[in-house]
Amino acid sequence: MPPRVRSAWFRTLGQLALILAAAALVGVLIRHPWQVLTVAALGVVAWHYWRLRKLLMRLTARQRHTPPLGEGTWNELDRLLHRGQQEMRGRKRRLIEMLRAYRAAAAALPDAIVVVERNSQRIQWFNEAAHGLLHLQHPQDINTPVAHRLQPLQISRWLASGRNAEPLEVASPWNPAITLSMRLIPYSENLWLLVARDVTRLLQLEQMRRDFVANVSHELRTPLTVVHGYLDMLDPAEHPDWAPMLAEMQRQSQRMTQLVEDLLTLSRLESADHLPAEEPVAMSTMLSTLRREAMALSQGRHEVSVEDSAGVDLFGSGKELHSAFSNLVGNAIRYTPAGGHITIRFRKDRPERLNSGAMAKDTGVVLEVVDTGYGIPAPHLPRITERFYRVSTSRSRESGGTGLGLSIVKHVLNLHQARLEITSEVGLGSTFSCHFGAERVRPREPLDIALP
Ligand code: ADP
């Protein structure tokens, strides 16, 4: 017990003892000790009830009162309650201030923020920017269904995917020059945050970057062709001293030409949001072409085998698919030491599990390039498809790599709604698998006879 409370307690007990002693004394003097003692005890009880009532009145009045001054237990109790009340008020004030500050910060954000009730999908709250970007009006739009309010944007299906909703990029219906990027963030059991950001400037910068790379590559093409042409005309036999120099110049100009070609391919793929021309792609022809290319690149240093168990064709752009697959095959040869084995496999994919739990009837297909080469350390795998990302720069340069091959593969696969999976173990080899969905599969043309 704190000393202050203890002394108040002893004081009250002392007062009680004094009152009872005085009452006993008076009682003895007037010869009615029990009556006087009873009256005194009743008086004490009455006084306590009166203090209890006073305290209850004070608490229920909900008004600020000054802290009591006396020193008994009742005053101490009153004082403690008063202190508790003061602390609670302070805490409440601080919480309200914090809440106001959060609201002000959310309201001042440049991104549109809309709080949506999960089940009814009705708007609960939105900030200033939501008025500018999404044309929401306060207070009319509070409690209206968000999909209905944001029409003509078609976001019902997107909202329905809830937690799994991918960020959505759409042209603003109120100003087609503005592109909005919308994200759905579930932040509590029954509330979602719909965040819309104006990404027009970002997209413009991205476009500028792409145009710049494409223009520079295009401009470099002609001078490189000229240099390359003149280098080809120089006969090393006529200038034996220059032979190693000429060979190196030729190698480097070839690398630069390849780099420019790869950059142009990448720019073209990046700016396309769909494939220009789609057609059935004869896979047995494709596989034998890949085999031929692999053997030419390997020049007998590797064993190359082709396995074709899928027995179907693909639907897409034959040219782009060939460029992607031959990049993978080229890498397998270049990053596998002599004596290694390269397998080009075209097989059916494992059936996917549907939302209902059943297995999908139509399966996709996988084109896999397996090598027994150097392998890739696991920390590099997530970044391997980035432009110019190399595990070993010297090995890549030595083997004539541009650092753009896997970026090209990823873009080509994206345009085919396919995905690249890479598994690798250092010293054992790597597997690059291109997974195509069932919608990209076509029955094999009977005339498509495999070339030997
Ligand atoms: P590069 O032109 O350098 O080969 P890529 O984009 O094709 O560029 O590949 C990026 C990097 O990934 C390469 O530099 C290499 O380090 C690694 N890599 C790609 N394929 C393989 C493979 N089959 N085995 C081992 N490493 C590989």
TrEMBL record:
It is an enzyme of class 2 (transferase). Keywords: ATP-binding, Cell membrane, Kinase, Membrane, Nucleotide-binding, Phosphoprotein, Transferase, Transmembrane, Transmembrane helix, Transport, Two-component regulatory system. SUPFAM superfamilies: ATPase domain of HSP90 chaperone/DNA topoisomerase II/histidine kinase, Homodimeric domain of signal transducing histidine kinase, PYP-like sensor domain (PAS domain). The chain crosses the membrane at residues 12-30, 36-52. Residues 215-440 form the Histidine kinase domain. Pfam families: HATPase_c, HisKA, PhoR. InterPro entries: BphY/WalK/GraS-like, HATPase_C_sf, HATPase_dom, His_kinase_dom, HisK_dim/P_dom, HisK_dim/P_sf, PAS-like_dom_sf, PhoR_N. GO terms for molecular function: protein histidine kinase activity. It catalyses: ATP + protein L-histidine = ADP + protein N-phospho-L-histidine. Its EC number is 2.7.13.3. This is histidine kinase. PROSITE patterns: HIS_KIN. It is found in: Cell membrane. The lineage of its organism: Bacteria, Pseudomonadati, Pseudomonadota, Gammaproteobacteria, Lysobacterales. SMART domains: HATPase_c, HisKA.
